[in-house]
Amino acid sequence: MNSEKYIGLGVHQATISVAVLDETGKLTMECILETKAATILEFFAGLRGTLAVTFEEGTSAGWLYDLLRPHGARLVVCNPRKNALLKAGSKSDRIDARKLAELLRGNYLEFVYHGETGVRTLRELARSYLTTSKDLTRVMTRVKALYRSWAIPCAGRDVYYTRHRNTWLAKIPHAGVRRRAEHLYQHMDILKRCGSRQGASCWRRVANTLSPPS
What we know:
Blueprint (H helix, E strand, L loop, with lengths): L3 E8 L3 E7 L5 E8 L2 H9 L4 E7 L4 H8 L5 E5 L14 H13 L11 H33 L15 H6 L4 H36 L4
Parallel strand pairs: 1-4, 4-5
Antiparallel strand pairs: 1-2, 2-3
Helix pairs in contact: 4-6
């Protein structure tokens, strides 16, 4: 029968809870799948009709979207933080999957864009850059904390500059602490280089993503 089906997927690391509703809202199938590409594709290959599929944004959302997109299903990746209805009632996996399917059928879901691979690549590059920036800030904070722990004033940014590094290290009287400061500086230099490369990659990807097709 060539009818529309609404499929909710509760995605977890090892398994996926599945609930399938028909066009009238009747539950026609519930099952548990392994989170493996072959298993998922085999399941969808056995379904007939027009398929609409939804699952929540999460660690595996991008992978699952790319896996299912070539197989003709209408995909909605939803944002759980914007769907208060998902928080109502029991929280078992099977009910979550069914509730997702019901909300999809009622067109109540807030979707998260997962369309272009280039946009997702840019998002991942931006995440890497932000993570590196946060790590760099933490290391820089530790550098100042080390000097302050020895009552060495270090206001401003001079303590971070490479050209003044030996002068600052010479202010630390204890050899072991001085060695620790050297390690922090080395870590800081590595993060700065990584951040510069990641930032450049982000801007190149932005330029490629926003450039009109030739």
